[in-house]
Design goal:
275 residues, mainly alpha, Cytochrome C Oxidase, Chain A, binds protoporphyrin IX containing FE
């Protein structure tokens, strides 16, 4: 992701390089050890649990710092937008990358950390709090990253006059609000209730069919219906529409190269202004 930020011109090369080194250190020293948090019931010694909990939590740090840097650049671009001759072409792609940072912090960082300590795992592993973290981290980080990169490419594939910033904007807000809704209306409260039940009546009881199909659970699950609808209709359809535009009206290679030159000069212009 740091290199994508640099390609879009929203993060300085030096900052991205520092983050990459920090990432390399954390992933190679910690990423593998970090996966120990999945092995709770496999009979590992407790020191493995402690190391797993620490290193998986630390992975979130570099990407969060990088996103703050990208965000301050986007803000700067917004202030200078009126002065620039060419509007910044990748605004929504960058917004999706900023969303990656947000979900990395909330979904992977906070929700991951919430279930990361061995004492919590004892009561919660494989419950709705796991689904809460898994959805927020998987769609939030890798889903948003995929859409951001798709928009970045589509921006070059779709002729300027057919490109729709509006579709990208609707998709951005719907995907993020839909996911927030899904998480805060259903998965998180469901997980807290299940954790409470597990601590009070035991882990086995909290995972029985009787509990998971109970009235409160049913109600909470139905609550996510509107969020899912926003996610699918407002979030997914516009991306499909833009992808269709990309396939239907794909710009020939030479013209795309010219276009890239123009867009790149807009990015350089913003970079110069940022110095
Ligand atoms: C972008 C990064 C991440 C993604 C995509 C991700 C995704 C997932 C998924 C899909 C699961 C469910 C696995 C299963 O059900 O077997 C999971 C479990 C888990 N994750 Fe993450 N995760 C990420 C980062 C983190 C971080 C940074 C932490 C700690 C702070 C963390 C802590 C956990 C724990 C403790 C579990 C096990 C929960 C259980 O088995 O009940 N994750 N993660």
């Amino acid at each position: 992701m740091p290199s994508n930020f640099v390609l879009m011109g929203v993060v300085r090369e030096r900052v991205a390089l520092t983050m990459i080194y920090l990432d390399i250190l954390l992933y190679s020293a910690g990423g593998i050890i970090g996966t120990m948090h999945h092995l709770y019931f496999s009979g590992e010694p407790s020191v493995h649990m402690a190391l797993g909990a620490f290193f998986s939590a630390a992975e979130v740090i570099p990407l969060t710092l990088l996103t703050l840097e990208a965000w301050s650049f986007v803000q700067l671009g917004a202030h200078q937008g009126t002065r620039s001759r060419t509007p910044f072409p990748h605004f929504w792609a960058v917004m999706f990358l900023a969303a990656v940072g947000f979900w990395n912090f909330l979904g992977a960082g906070i929700f991951g950390f919430l279930i990361n300590l061995p004492i919590i795992s004892y009561y919660e592993i494989g419950t709705a709090l796991t689904a809460n973290h898994a959805h927020a981290a998987m769609m939030g980080v890798y889903g948003m990253l995929a859409v951001g990169l798709a928009l970045f490419c589509l921006r070059y594939m779709i002729p300027e006059e057919r490109w729709s910033d509006r579709a990208a904007k609707i998709s951005f807000w719907s995907l993020n609000l839909g996911l927030l809704w899904m998480v805060f209306a259903t998965l998180f409260p469901l997980g807290i209730l299940q954790l409470y039940h597990s601590v009070r009546y035991g882990y086995f009881d909290a995972r029985t069919l009787k509990f998971v199909t109970g009235r409160t659970n049913d109600l909470l699950e139905w609550l996510r219906f509107s969020g899912d609808t926003v996610f699918i209709l407002g979030g997914v359809l516009p991306v499909l529409y833009l992808s269709w535009l990309g396939i239907r009206y794909m710009v020939p290679r030479a013209a795309a190269d010219d276009d890239r030159e123009v867009q790149f000069s807009a990015v350089v212009e913003m970079n110069e202004a940022a110095k």
